[in-house]
Amino acid sequence: MTQALYRKYRPKGWDAVIGQDHVVQTLTNSIKADRVGHAYLFAGPRGTGKTTVARLLAKAVNCLNEDPAQRPCNACENCKAVNENRFMDMIEIDAASNNGVDDVRDLREKINFSPSQGKYKVYVVDEVHMLSSGAFNALLKTLEEPPPHAIFVLATTEIHKIPATVLSRCQRHEFRRVPVDEIVTNLKQIVAAENLTADDEALTLIARQSAGGMRDAQSLLDQLSSTGTKITLALAQTVLGTATSKTVLDIISSVLDHQPAHGLETIHRALDSGADPRSLARQIVEYLRGLMLIQMGNIDQVEATREVKQQMDVHAKSFSTSDVLRMMKIFNNAATDLRGGWQPSLSIELALAEVLDAPTESPQIAAPVRTQPKPVPVTKTREASQPEVKSDAPISEKPVINAGDITKAWKHLAASLPKSQANLSALLNSVRMIDVQGKTLVLGLASDVLVSKIDKPDQIEAIQKLIKDNFNVELSVRCIVTNAKGKIPANVAQDGMVAAAIQHGGEIVDME
Question: 284 with 252: CB under 8 angstroms?
Fold first, then answer.
């Protein structure tokens, strides 16, 4: 069986540790001065060298070389035993699967036995934050006063979960993410040693994808090397799933051209082909990030082919920076949204609808700036556009129920739906305007996409049942497109001109 690159090239000496000079310097000084502590806590992101440094420490304190400055020497019997995973006095414990009180009690019983091969027994507890509260309490006394032949090294990626009582008993060392240039240098050394061929751009992409984790970078290189071909940027993008697909370009173009139907069709075509909606949302965010970098003058930081960069340059000039930032935030929410239930595509569909709902969109019917009926209070609204609603517009039939009552209860109604109707619940939360005209409940949504999603017989029937069960009235439901920024206040006539202004884009700015 072929050995994984990250194991094959694991550092065997202090000088081979990359990106953690501050930790290495402290530990080597303590070994030279024979002032090794009894408990250490290594904290930091995954793949940054915590377990590797723990193994080096175990090797150094048990090294037989007479010169402390040369430890570990990798030549003595103890160093060779550690390198070959047969050193009996280095015990690695996975706290994720050994996290109970009984496991710690078992450790406490065995810790008093003298070392079998070396001078010290070194216990490396990985993912120590996974220990239960009872297990931490059982470990406290041993951490504070271990036998003279025992050393603890606790490793964690989530230091905030470690009790303060444990932190106070350990020497704490923070591991940092490895810089991209240092990862690239290491990858080039591995490429040369393994007789591989790789473009510098591809290695840079691997380094950035690893997010500062050396182990992750080496694993990604291992994955790409298994293809048996030259590791190019295009290959790296395809294998690692970072290539800018035609789907992403089509979605961005549909936003630019304001074609919601085309955008939705593109998404569904991709999902029908097996794409994951959250993964697609992440690709869109990565593409938008590239547009942002181009707009900020950092095109060299964009990993893309020449053809894609040319398209990105066109899009970067077509969108304003604020538009790009707004779209990034919306699609990033879709990429991290765990909701959706039985309809996993809902999050990215809602994201597209929200993106297409541009603030500058022109309404079909305008509203007056303000209206002053007497002697009732005056409500001022900000106009949607210049033409005014005609004064002889037909007056709606008197509502059978106050729309304000429904508005107040709307969030509760949406939340009361069962998990099987999570799709409808999310759509109800997207409603921007609620009105009652006679025996009709009018729901305003931001786009045609959202209206088409909610305006289905089963959805409408479920809404009618909600209203019937909670207000004991039977209403028909009509869904419309509106760019209203808020719902009509309860003290404003639901069928008057102010309501019409709000419904078609107006915004209340003052009440007199």
Answer: yes
Place of tokens 């035609």: 246
CATH number assigned to the domain comprising residue 186: 1.10.8.60
Average pLDDT, 10 consecutive residues per value, the chain (512 residues): 88 94 95 93 94 96 94 95 93 88 88 91 94 90 89 94 93 94 95 94 89 93 90 85 79 90 90 83 91 90 80 90 92 77 79 76 33 38 42 58 88 87 85 88 85 88 91 91 56 53 54 48
pLDDT at 505: 53
What distance in Å separates the CA atoms of residue 433 and residue 428, rounded to the nearest whole number? 11
Give every strand in the sheet of 476-481, ordered side by side.
433-437, 440-445, 476-481
| Whether residues 21 and 96 fall in one domain | yes
> 498 lies in a domain?
yes
pLDDT for position 269: 87
Q: Distance between terminal CA atoms of the chain?
A: 81
Choosing from 174, 203, 219, the residue where a domain stops is: 174
> Which pTM was predicted?
0.61
236-245 in b/e form (b: 16+ CB < 10 A) is bbebeebbbb
Please give the structure tokens belonging to residue 418.
């069962």
In a domain, 363, yes or no: no
Per the prediction, the chain carries an average pLDDT of 83
Cα(330)–Cα(350) distance, rounded to whole angstroms?
A: 9
